[in-house]
Amino acid sequence: MKKLLLFSGILLGGAAAARFLPEKRREPVRRFAEKMRERVSSHMGSMMEKMPENSPPRLVMSTLPRLADQNDQILELLREQNDLMRELSAKR
User: Which pLDDT band, with edges at 50, 70 and 90, does 88 fall under?
Assistant: First the structure.
């Protein structure tokens, strides 16, 4: 875990430093950063698969899509309510 945190810190520091590179030198850095993101993502995926079903990280990951759907429904209802309120205020 410490190695992953250290590696992530180095990667973020490199990404921050890459902003100051000339445009010609940025492309190799971008490719490297993308490759590292894929490696970290695949490593995290394999770690998640090894965890028990009721572990907190897996519970959070299973809950997030439902929360996103719920938020979308709430936003749609609020938009509909705003439209109705605008119509009502326009009639007055």
Answer: very high
